[in-house]
Amino acid sequence: MALRPVNVNMKALDDSAVGRFWAEALGWGVSSEGPGVTNVEPVGGFVWPDPVAVCVDVVAVPEPKTTTKNRAHLDLATTSAAHQAELIARLQALGATPADVGQGDVPWTVLADPEGNEFCVLEPREIYRDTGPIAAVVVDCVDPRAMARFWGEATDWTLHEVTDDHAVLRSAKGVGPYLEFLRTPGVKTVPDRVHIDLLPYPGDDKAAEVARLRALGATDLDLGQGDVPWTCLTDPEGHEFCVLGRP
65, 68, 148, 221: which could join 116 in a potential S-S bond, CB 3.0 to 4.6 Å? Predict the structure, then answer.
């Protein structure tokens, strides 16, 4: 039994506008499964759920982002210094703005999307040469080792590295983006505006998977979601995530 990461879920006042931004940023297309949801996914005959692709779902909410930095964000991959510079300029033309999260003098650039969700445009790195436009989904945490244990058991992704400061997982197929946990000062103080959605494999029982996650340390989360086909949980450090029903 295992679950697979299939979406990065982002909250937005205007899901359509933020969805269009991310589609342009990633070179992907947009669709909508219903009012208030914009789905951003690869083009060219893509069918969700893909075995390894992690898509972006932008979901409308009435609350704007607070000034608190998101504890989950996307890192975008580049192939050269020229590509990095071109991508940064193009993103700013689309409405991205520079963001200061205390990064100091680093070779990557931190930006925020039109509603303030932070993300990074990385300098070229060999490790991300084959990930596609999303190099990694990055989550701030207190204890990367504990996060590696939980998320390694929760998903079927392979643990590539774990230290006191950093944990890295990736699809067992060795393709697509990485999932990274970074040791970061401070603790979670507001609900995450960006979270991961997990999906059971065909034939697996969602209720049994949710029970397994609870046994691993996940906690039920009531966001007022009511009777919906997904289950909202938090991991042992309080990061929200959802287990989706079958499509």
Answer: 65
Radius of gyration of the chain (CA): 17
**Domain boundary assignment for the chain:** 4-243
The answer to pTM > 0.90 is: yes
- Spell out the CATH class of 4-243: alpha beta
Sorted by sequence, the CB contacts under 8 Å of residue 66 that are 6+ apart come out as 190
Parallel, antiparallel or unpaired: strands 178-183 and 134-141:
parallel
Residues 6+ apart with CB under 8 A from 224: none
Q: Which long-range contacts (CB under 8 A, 24 or more apart) does 24-33 make?
A: 24/90, 24/94, 25/76, 25/91, 25/94, 25/96, 25/113, 25/133, 26/56, 26/76, 26/133, 26/134, 27/133, 28/55, 28/56, 28/133
**pLDDT at res. 226:** 67
pLDDT tens-digit readout, 179-215: 999 999 888 888 889 999 999 999 899 999 999 999 9
Percentage of residues in the chain with pLDDT exceeding 70?
Answer: 98
Helix (H) / strand (E) containing 17:
helix 15-26
